[in-house]
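seq:
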Amino acid sequence: MADLYAQLGVARGASEADIKKAYRKLAKELHPDRNKDNPKAAERFSAVTRAYDILTDKDKRAQYDRGEIDEEGNPKAPFGFGQGGPRPGGGGGFRPGPGFENAGEADLSDLFEGLFGGGAAARRGGGGFSGFGFGNGRKAPPAKGADVGYRLSVPFQDAATLKEQRVSLGAGNTIDIKLPKGVEDGTKIRLAGKGQPGPGGHGDAIVTISIAPHRFFRRDGDDVLLDLPVSLDEAVLGAKVKVPTVEGAVMLSIPKGSSSGKTLRLKGKGFTAKSGQRGDQLVTLMVDLPADNAELARFAEEFRGKSKGNPRAALGV
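struct:
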């Protein structure tokens, strides 16, 4: 079997990033969905997936580089054990390596115990070679397919209300997902078994959430912010006005004598935190004055002489 690095087309000292890049390229070329009439491609896909699995595992890669495991991730036999089959006329399948031909009936348990810590256990059938994978019949599990990344743009209101979203996974496949509490830009949702196929089963789909900006709502933590224009009479005399929220319009009471910059709170109309508690919507009033209104100008002239105090006194000017 070809060297794992050669299977991926990278040098032995390649970085993990280079290995991942090479695997993604090969996986795309050899994917079974694109090579339904080419069984050789499917075999190569399995081989490069196994190579990728071993070389991106820090411990397994070190074992492979030291020659301790083979291209399938199985331990290599030390001293040539198991290399030559049974000896002629012998009663077992063990053939000693170089230096053991004249050992005769000598008890080698002390040597094995020193090497593997299991001589006595081996004589009792207790798996003295288990540290190297001998005697237990187990092989490294087959590698799963590659994970596949997706990016999902979620409307601002949907993110705030945790509305279920539909994701297209390619090849016409779609799935509905629930947004998690505390969702924000960059939140990742893992869909088990929705990735690329592999010898050990499908990988996962990883969906990264991107919350779309809104034309008048803004987010501050779990709160939603809104600047609300109000007329002069609504600010001076007070009024009940309709206000948009992430869940639809509601009525809001504006107190008499409200100035621009006054903030009113709508409880529970924000985003849902990880704890499950909803944030609020903070509504900042912005008094909207009509331009070139002669009547309003006359009133202001009369009021100028009657007004008392300096509204900027708190600023020291």
